[in-house]
UniProtKB/TrEMBL annotation:
Coiled-coil zones: none
EC number: 3.-.-.-
InterPro entries: HAD-like_hydrolase_sf, HAD-like_sf, HAD_2, HAD_sf
An example Gene Ontology molecular-function term: hydrolase activity
Enzyme class: hydrolase
One Pfam family, short name: HAD_2
Superkingdom of this protein's organism: Bacteria
Alphabetized SUPFAM superfamilies for the sequence: HAD-like
Protein name: HAD family hydrolase
Length: 103
């Protein structure tokens, strides 16, 4: 995570950071625990949140947490697989950044 923030100086715009809990693999996705932790820390209801993921377990976790899901499909195979879900499918993160500029 540190390398990412060294490369992209946006740390002040990213909070909270929720990660895996060491020694508790059962809390990893598709368990919605990390998403629910973020909702609690932000004080937001699920209806106001979109989770961006690039795997079927991400889509499953978003569904279990009752949040909107944006599926990042960086290959034709993923695009086809994700199109069979209820997620919004994108092929470039630019699609998000172009529609929702940082303030």
């Amino acid at each position: 995570m540190r390398l990412f923030f060294d490369k992209f100086p946006i740390r002040s715009k990213v909070s909270p950071i929720i990660g895996r809990t060491f020694g508790h693999p059962e809390l990893m996705k598709p368990n919605p625990w990390p998403i629910n932790q973020a909702l609690d820390k932000l004080g937001l209801p699920p209806i106001r949140v979109a989770f961006i993921g690039d795997s079927t377990t991400d889509i499953e976790a978003a569904k279990l947490a009752n949040v909107h899901c944006i599926a990042f499909a960086n290959s034709a195979h993923k695009r086809e697989k994700f199109s069979r879900t209820n997620a919004i499918v994108i092929s470039s993160m630019r699609e998000i950044f172009d529609s929702q500029p940082f303030e």
